[in-house]
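Exercise 7. Given the components listed, write out the predicted structure of the assembled complex. Treat all entries as one system.
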Amino acid sequence: MSNPILSLRDVHLSLNGNAGMVDILHGISLDVTKGETLALIGPSGSGKSSLLMVMGGLEQATGGTISAVNQDLTNLDEDALAAFRRHHMGVVFQSFHLIPTMTALENVAVPLELAGESDAFDRAQAELEAVGLGARADHYPNQMSGGEQQRVALARALAPRPEILLADEPTGNLDGTNGEAVMDLLFDLRDRHGATLIMVTHAPELANRCDRVIRLRDGRLDQ
Amino acid sequence: MKTAWIFATRELRSGLRGFGIFLACLALGIAAIAAVGSTRTAILKGLERDGAALLGGDAELQFTYRFATADERAWMQSQAIQVSEITDFRSMIVVPSGADTSPERALTQVKSVDAAYPLVGEVKLSPEMPLDQAIAANGAVMERVLADRLGLMIGDSFSIGTGTFRLSAILQREPDNAGGGFGLGPRTLVRTESLANAGLLQTGTLFDTKYRMLLPEGTELAALERDAEQRFANSGLRWTDARNGAPGVQQFVDRLGAFLVLVGLSGLAVGGVGVSAAVRSYLERKTSVIATLKTLGASRSTIFATYAIQIGLLTILGIAIGLVLGAALPLALAPIIEARLPVPAEFAIHPKPLIEAAIYGAFAAAIFTLWPLARTENIRAATLFRDALGHDNALPRKRYLFLTAGLVAALVLSAIAFSGTAFLTLWTAGGIIAVLGVLALAARGLRALAAAATKMRALRGRPALRLALGAIGGPREQASSAILSLGLGLSVLAAVGQIDGNLRGAIARDLPDVAPSYFFVDIQSDQLNGFNARLAGDPAVSRVDTAPMLRGVISKINDRPAKEIAGDHWVLQGDRGVTYAQTAADGVTITQGSWWPADYTGAPQISFAAEEAEEMGLVLGDTMTINILGRDITGTITSFREVDFSTAGIGFILTMNPAALQGAPHSHIATVYATPEAEAEILRDLAGTFPNITAIRVADAIARVGELLASLAAATSLGASATLITGFLVLIGAAAAGVDARTFEAAVLKTLGASKGVILKSFALRAGLLGAAAGTIALIAGLTFAWAVSTFVMETSFAIVWGNALAIIIGGVAATMLAFLGYAWGPLKARPAGILRRGN
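Answer.
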């Protein structure tokens, strides 16, 4: 394998739940190549989403090492992780997670503004047009359908041109037609931008569109 | 209803989580009203209990300018066990010059008494001694402040008029002083006989006599009053009795108390905003429960009743907490309040103010919870998982609108009934509703402005500021709750501060430029030439005005009791200065009618102040009866003229033709306009030559008025502060309610690469902007009100008091920052993964 863009070594994650500490991930080791598309599948509670969060630095691993884009993420603090994501990573969620107090255009512009891009709004408008929502730029999330919101979320994730795109069940909250359209768009944009895509999904047909599929069971890789 | 009750009690089993702000807002608003009401009642009860002591007897007959006639005295002796005569007047105390000091002078309010004084209560002196002993043989006692001002020690001599007195003790407590009203000079107490040769109590000089009576047990005071007034009709007598021993104080406390309760109502209105928000937030959390109940067959009325019962029970709890606090606070602070009050108070648990506060609380809770409750009817079972309640801003059904209007009307009517003043209540209620309306509109405007600002090119690349503006202008805005909660309290504080500042500014800055240096009263007719001669040649004196001065009570208008025609107008309260003049003074503008001819000697004619005439509903040709020195003089109003009181010069409401009054014994008043450096010398010369003349230094009077205004402004500000504290609580509630939204926002922003610093900056900016906006809007509302009051009511010039304006805006910013940043830590430290997994 060529030099991986994302590398996990013996990653553990334990979270404090109502019933005390719960072990979520048990010694995950994994390399992802630049430009690869990878599907994480497995039953509910197997740790797919948690693994994705750990990869994105949204959850702090309790053991092991994580490196991405030649940078060791393991011991970075929250602000340093945020700065890393700002420049290298995009995230798409099942529940879209648009900021409700901002219009579609503003939502897409936020990561560009945070990265200090002077043409943030022009680029955000272009991204919206690329997902077919140029005309809905001034609409707030609650004025859009689920499919439209997810397209905005896609545009937002890809606007800073991240090397890595993380997607957590991006069609999980959408009906069949909308889900399919969003998926086509996701793969199309990824192909265009050449980002590495790591996607959590329950849908086998989506997983099959990826270069590689990894199955998780009880927090362990089940390859 | 039974089903609703069962559902309601089941739901309440989960505890009162989320109702802290509801209970706090309601309890605080009610506690403030109950505390003010309880204190007012305590003072009024104290006045009632000690009525006789405050009055100095069971009943009092007061005359202006004269002693009682033989008939009057005989009647009093026949009714009373004991009668005591006192006189009350202003005069000058002069301390003769020493070897190396010039004479000291000071204004004093002299009370001369007979041996029977005081009939009730006790005079306290320092050193302790009986009053009889202290004021025997030209002895005198005075308040410490006066003795200190004059540098007098016990045993020192001083003069009042032409009489010489010796200070024998300091007056520490005067039992009948509460009814004294507004006095310009501290008290000196002497024996009436000692004044016999002082040249002060001559006919025509300004003095009051009061005859206090100690009556047999069981005397019907009302019947006795009727008897006195019938027997001595048109004698100018004024009756007071122990039922209301200090009428001025009682009226003042009653009015100020009523006003502060009404200010307290504004606190309840602000609390209502928090109550409404808390209920809305609670019902939003219950959307799925409501939808499920509907799915299972619950009717709209059952749903409404289920939640109305819950809110009702919580309201009862809130009211109970408020009443306990409102009743306990005055009791706990009683020793401190009593020590500061110049009048007695009877602190206890008084039911009436508590009932009043409970009724206001119940109405306010009903008004502010009805709309959110009504919206439960709009939740459809099919919208089980939609945010159906949160964005439903449609008006509730008509029946609820009518019910709301009815509740508001009932609240206002209760306030009128309790305060006893429809005028004040309607203005206050109208003011509260108008300000809340303006604030709601301003909040909408602010949201639109913030939403528009986020699209400005200048804001691009400034994510923290744009996030802040987006949060203010976006759909989950908190602008309305911040502006409504802080706005009302800040508006009242701004208005009070601006009015107070302008009025005191006008008095302190503008008045000295146009006001005279001295008022001289009690100038006898034979002294007038000498008085004028001393001033005529003095280059430091720019102007001297003199006028004959009598005092009279307007008893009838068009032969009917004056109060029936003109109500409670201030001109009819007590006695007024009356003068006569051959011709209209220079510069006087006659607005209607014409002045009498210079040689007119016919039936009495009156020229009356135009503005007051309009307020009293007087027209040319009306007749007016004035009781002067016990004699009724009836004249016809033949002209109205402008009288300007704002310059503190001589201004008489009522002027008559000379023939009508010349025969009555009277003195003269004068105003002297002189350079400040010459004032002392003028006083020395005139007081030396005419010891009976009293000089009132206008600057001292202005300072005294300024002190009174400051006290009133402080009391009102205190009331407004309660509103502000409630507003702050509402703000805390709003900040707490928005924590989830901000946590989510912070999580998304962190995912997109925002540092904690950027997120915190955005939170601080939105709080600061909201606070500044709330402060600015409140300031505009306060300034508008203050300008209107200053211009149209006070008729003074208006200039913005910048210190107060700045304080209002800083106050707004500080309050919102404190409330919102207090809740910033949670969203900042929350881990994004956990938040985003839960979803929005």
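Discussion: The beta strands of chain A are 6-17, 20-32, 37-41, 63-68, 71-72, 89-92, 164-168, 196-200, 212-217, 220-221. Chain A has one domain: 35-57+76-221.
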